[in-house]
Description:
The complex is a heterodimer of chains A (about 80) and B (about 250). Chain A is mainly alpha-helical. Chain A has helices at about 1-25, 30-50, 55-85.
Amino acid sequence: MIVATLVPLQLTGLALVALGAPAIAFTRDPLRQIVVAGLYSWALAILFVIFAAPDVALSMIVVGAVGYPLVVLVAIARTRKGKDE
Amino acid sequence: MTRRARLWLFGPAVAGFGALLVWAIAGLPDFGSTQHRYGYLINHVALPERHMTNAVTAVVFDYRGFDTMGEEFILFAAVTGVVLLLRQHEREQGRESSDSTRSDPVRVIGVLGVGVGVLIGLWLIALGFVTPGGGFQGGVAIASGVVLLYFAADYRAWSGVSRTDVLEPIEGVGAGAYVVIGIAALIAGMPFLTNLLGPGKAGTVWSGGSAALVNWAAGMEVAAANLLLFGEFLEEYIVPLHGRRA
């Protein structure tokens, strides 16, 4: 019974991740790419929860949706402002 | 390189990589068919032996605590490296603060997020041995909560809270405490990082004994390290835009 509800969930999670990865690659603007990458991290985190790995999901959230975008955002802010002048 | 040449390089490379990937995936055991013995073992001994209901954190800070100490020092060394490379000797004073947020919703949600982030972080660390979480995730959550101050207000508000003279000792003490707790066991005549305080009461913040202290030490170190890291990047990228050219 649990398996019957879990399989569609697992497929949905896998589909989200499968769609998210090319979405990052096809986003050309770096600023938007960070947002897409952040959303992709959330998709991965959801996938990890579905596959019963909540600890890994938490690590995914803090690294992919918090740590990485923050550092890259600041770098982009710098290059952007430099370009405007 | 011309587009043609790049395609010639890309084609075989992607074909080779794809073939290797398919080969590797084809060799995997069927989904859900095997349960590794180590996972089975830990699931059965973590609760009776260490009174920890979260087997993952039990592995990270107790069974495999020595490895985690190495991981903690990787972060410590990385942040030290960044600080050494990026920190400027003189800090600009009286800089113009033109980066303040003007949108009221962003300010309100941001300030709420500060509290929520820090609270979630403390919760993740405190209950690391009970529910999913632990020092590493909790530490980053605390740091991200504080970082929200910059987005909700401005650089000045953020740098008033996230001060290097406060964060550096916290980071050092966090990293050092991990080792000190480990050595305390050696002094007591037991192997490094042996739990000195007993296993504690399962399902509470007191489960874990001295492993809980190790967990808090790692949380301190990670939170301070992330704030220092973000601070150095901000100094490097934002301050020149608002300070020196203003």
